[in-house]
Structure formats: C-alpha cells, structure tokens
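[step 3/7] inverse_fold.run input=structure_tokens len=292
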C-alpha cells in the first residue's frame, strides 16, 4: 500500500477581523447621524438667538413703554395715545449688531469734540426754547426714563441711561451714551441700539430720510427732532459722531458745524455684522409740554 503522508494544515490567525463592506456602510451611517445631530443642535441655537430671544426682548421693551406711559398718565405727563405707523417694525431676524460707537475696551468713553472743518454740515437751528437743559432729574444708570418714537419705521422703544449690552441694549432698549446731552438740551442726545436680535429696535434705521420726525417722550414733555443727515458707514471708534456738535472724525464731510440741540442714533452695519457703524442725525424742532 502506498504510504500515507500526514498532511499538516497551518492556520495563521490575524489580529482582528477584516472590515467588510457592511462595516463601512455602518461607519458612514453613524457619522451621518452625528453630523445630523450637530446640525439640529446648531439650528436650534440659531432659532433661539435669532427668533426667540428677539421676540422676548421686543415684548419686554413694549411692556416697559406701557409702564412708563402709565406712570406719566397718572402724573399728568405726555402720553402718546396713537400707535406709531411705519413700514417695517419689529420683523424678527438677525444677529447681535447694536454695539455702541466705541467698542475698544468695552466702553463707549466720553464724547470727543471734533476738529472744525468744512463739508456737508448745514447750520443747525436755534437753541431749544426754555434754556440750555430741560427740567427734571438725572436718570440713574440703566434706568428706563424715556420713549423713543420714529413714525417712519413704526418704532416705539424705551430709552435707558447707559449703553451696557446686558443691562440695556440686550433688553431691546435704546441706550443713552453717558456724558452726552439729555433730551431737549443744547448738545447731542446720543443713542445706541441693536440692529439685529434682542428686539432689534434700530433694524430699519437705514430707511430714515431727511425731514423724518423723531420723537422723544419724557415725563411731561415731547421733544420733536427732524432728521437732517445720515452717515451710512463709519468705524466703531469714530467718537466725533456723538460729540456735542456731532461730526465724523473719519469722514469730516458728514456732520454739523455749529452748536445746537441734536439727536444721534447709532447702530451696527451691515446687517448681521458689527464691523461698521451707521449714524443718523437730527436737530430739535420743537418741544411739546403736557400743558398744551
């Protein structure tokens, strides 16, 4: 009989199982689920920031307007019973974009008087009736004490002392630059407000034109300003725009040249960005008291 040779089978074991087609499919599936989950979370955060916080701030700001007006009504103050009409009030959208003119160091700083110059600055009207400053106490920091109304854009928003983001601007208020004039006084009543998110009171500031009226209601008085100049874009550090005689230090052709009673509205531009500032200026036209 032929010899039977033993056959030896050599088995080589590998360190792990090879990844097949099914394994790759599962890996892609898990990765897709992770990306989808991250996308949903980011979308919810955007909705919260852009829509929900915006609605909350706008609603709270309107409640504050009512509180102020009710208080003035009980004490014989000027109360605007008409609803402002306009073409774009309160449409929710956008990112935070209403920082003050000066952002270095997180503070607006004092207004700096601009150097005199020539340009598009037309002469301002005469000083306001009744002296250099209106009667009334100086508001406390972060206190809401006035209502800003702009019929052109359907705006009615509280004005609070200071431009702190959390305590004032993020509440949907317009913030008064400390150190600038109060309503009706000779000098510059300068305000800042968000253009996007947090109530976005200055969302449609770019729609204002020469001749539009801006009202500032304070207990017992309404100060009527008329828009005279618009600076579409300047740098965040252009403190000349909030000087007593407002004039851009970056674009000297924009602003005023003589003393008067002015209002300045500042906000971020372009929309959804805080790279530049947009500025709207107006001059005092008249003062309406509660007695009239």
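[step 3/7] decode complete -> sequence:
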């Amino acid at each position: 009989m032929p010899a039977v040779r033993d056959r030896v089978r050599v088995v080589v074991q590998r360190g792990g199982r090879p990844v097949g087609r099914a394994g790759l499919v599962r890996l892609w599936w898990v990765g897709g689920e992770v990306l989808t989950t991250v996308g949903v979370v980011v979308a919810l955060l955007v909705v919260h920031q852009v829509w929900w916080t915006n609605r909350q701030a706008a609603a709270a700001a309107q409640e504050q307007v009512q509180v102020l007006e009710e208080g003035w009504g009980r004490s014989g103050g000027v109360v605007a019973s008409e609803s402002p009409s306009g073409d774009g009030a309160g449409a929710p959208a956008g990112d935070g974009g209403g920082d003050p003119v000066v952002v270095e160091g997180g503070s607006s700083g004092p207004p700096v008087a601009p150097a005199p110059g020539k340009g598009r600055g037309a002469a301002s009207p005469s000083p306001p009736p009744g002296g250099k400053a209106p009667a009334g106490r100086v508001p406390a920091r972060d206190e809401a004490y006035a209502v800003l109304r702009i019929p052109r854009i359907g705006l009615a928003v509280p004005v609070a002392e200071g431009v702190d983001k959390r305590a004032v601007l993020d509440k949907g208020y317009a913030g008064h630059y400390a150190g600038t004039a109060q309503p009706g006084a000779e000098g510059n009543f300068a305000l800042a407000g968000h253009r996007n998110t947090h109530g976005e009171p200055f969302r449609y500031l770019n729609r204002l034109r020469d001749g539009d009226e801006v009202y500032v209601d304070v207990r017992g008085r309404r100060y009527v300003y008329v828009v005279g100049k618009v600076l579409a874009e300047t740098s965040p550090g252009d403190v000349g725009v909030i000087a007593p005689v407002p004039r851009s230090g970056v674009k000297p052709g924009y602003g005023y040249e003589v003393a008067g009673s002015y209002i300045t509205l500042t906000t971020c531009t372009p929309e959804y960005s805080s790279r530049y500032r947009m500025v709207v200026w107006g001059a005092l036209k008249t003062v309406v008291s509660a007695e009239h």
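[step 4/7] annotate
The helical segments are 21-74.
DSSP finds one helix and eight strands in the chain.
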